[in-house]
Amino acid sequence: MVGIVVGSLSDREVVAPATAVLDEFGVPWEWRVISAHRSPEALAEYARTAEERGLRALIAAAGGAAHLPGVLAAQTILPVVGIPVADRNLGGLDALPSIAQMPPGIPVATVGIDGARNAALLAVAILALGDAALAARSRTWRRSQAEGVAEADRRLREELASR
Ligand code: RP5
Questions:
Q1: What ligand 1 atom has the least distance to the C-alpha of 9?
Q2: Which residues are CB-contacts of 44 (< 8 A; sequence separation ≥ 6)?
Q3: How many CA atoms does the CB half-sphere of 96 hold within 13 Å?
Q4: Are 123 and 2 spatial neighbours (Cβ–Cβ below 8 Å)?
């Protein structure tokens, strides 16, 4: 249901948390390595066939002068969530505007640098619009996250009170 595309196998570790989130929500995913500049024809083919293959949202991650999410979004009407990947030269400050600053007409919903978890959560939110069971799981997940914060708050206050 969610198609994940990375520009290089070197993006794998950064993007892996997205698959863990999708698994947590029971959302099926596929994961491909396709590059906007090294394998442009394969990317065009992937984008053109994504919708008919049943994909409903795409996550695209790339580093450097990152064209992948925008080029993908240009060739499909599916929503594309872009993850700017930090590289060793500019730490993602090149990929972030490359992905976020799409000229009007072709949007890419951009998360923070290396923001794989948020990318998956955004994809889940998009899918949940048309899936009541997934929406219910999202509400439960948010509640349990809030409970985790409340628990951390309780522990900290307890610890500080006993000083
Ligand atoms: C981008 O260039 C990839 O998404 C990756 O983040 C970056 C470096 O790629 P490699 O040189 O490691 O293959 O296309």
A1: 13
A2: 75
A3: 10
A4: yes
pLDDT per residue over 94-120, tens digit each?
999 999 999 999 999 999 999 999 999
Local confidence band at 152 (pLDDT 50, 70, 90 cut-offs): very high
Measured between alpha carbons, how far is 151 from 72 in angstroms, rounded to an integer? 41
Span from the CA of 87 to the centroid of ligand 1 (angstroms) = 8
Determine the distance separating the centroid of ligand 1 and the alpha carbon of 36, expressed in angstroms.
10
Residue 50 Cα to ligand 1 midpoint, Å, equals: 22
Tell me the pairing of strands 109-110 and 29-33: unpaired
The reply to whether the predicted model has a pTM over 0.90 is yes
